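User: Structure please.
Assistant: Input sequence and predicted structure:
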Amino acid sequence: MLNIGLISKWHVHAGGYAKQLSQDERVTIVSVWDEDPERGKEWAEELGAQFFADYDEFLASDIQAVVCDSPTTWHEKLLTKAAQAGKHVFTEKLLAPTTQEAEQIAQAVREAGVTFTISLPCKGDRSVQYVKQLIQDGKLGQVTGARFRRSHNGVNWLPKYWFDLAQSGGGALMDLGAHPVYIMGDLFGVPRRVTALMTELFGTGSDENTIAVAEFEGGVLATMETAFVTQGVPDLLEVYGTGGAVYVRAGQVVQNIGDGWEEVDYEDLPEGKPNPLSQFIQACLEGISEPEGLGLEDGILMTRITEAAYKADASGQTVVW
């Protein structure tokens, strides 16, 4: 049995994680800390857990692991202290707003020898696993381009504090745009250069509509698109090369690898991976440092690409590695 402490209900996914943990027989939610004491007390009561207003006392409670849903700008301070206290760490994306902060977290985790997991759920999707296998098997020939788009109309329903850069560290790219960023990093590695264009249409004070482009090894040009200002747009992943192309639209896979366009039967897709939180729990229980693809270097790379995109937009210049 793994005793878990919850760090903040700030993130919109916090309630979902708490629900999943409450239904998992392998864990018990023991403690809650929140930068907003009133919110934290109410949440702890709902969960039957103990609330701590003092973070050090929270870390000293009977917990072995933490699940962090705090403001992104708080991650470096909170996660570093959790690791130093010997607690296994699960965190929502992004790892941190800057590469320097992300590397500081990584150093603390490695020195403490605790289990670490970052929530990058699309990596485990069956369709993404299939596309990655096509690339690795050379079925698309030499890959020349790729695109991932994820967007919604969050400008209409996300909490107002979501657009406070002092808490979030950024807008659409920092949040929803993490998915295309980490998928492109997973498929193609470390980029050579990054550029981006961001717009603010509705006065939230943060980027609401973003297109970032990166060049990866071999000349692959990858487009990463995200927005808080669209309605009814399905997730879209495209990869194309000299020998074929594959499209994933809302989980449906269509490919052309020499025999014309055909839909790939869902049953022919690889088995998906468990969600990141479930993988984290199992890794803690088995003494594994991090689940494959959900570790420190994955988190650092995602932050590095994201930070480069913000710098590129702000400066009007391409960021070169």
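The chain has a mean pLDDT of 97.
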